[in-house]
Amino acid sequence: MKSKITDKFQITIPKKIREKLKIARSDALEWKFRKGFVVVEPVKNSFLNYKNAILTGKGDIGDDIRTARRNIAKKSR
Prior knowledge:
The protein is of the alpha+beta class. It has one domain. Helix content is 29%, strand content 18%. A hairpin with a 2-residue loop joins strand 1 and strand 2. The longest helix has 15 residues. The chain is elongated, with a radius of gyration of 22 Å. 0% of the residues are buried.
């Protein structure tokens, strides 16, 4: 597969490559040199691995705010 470099040194990543790397708009790529080759790897946000890991239910925002304020006050003593 080939990509053409534009006047602004931009390239289009072929669809098959985007799908294989599971990348989308606003994702980042890291460019590295290895043994005379350029290697391009997607930068993965590790915090996304925890998506839906914590189960939550209905809460009381007023109670949550009071608890947070108490915890902050305890830390500042």
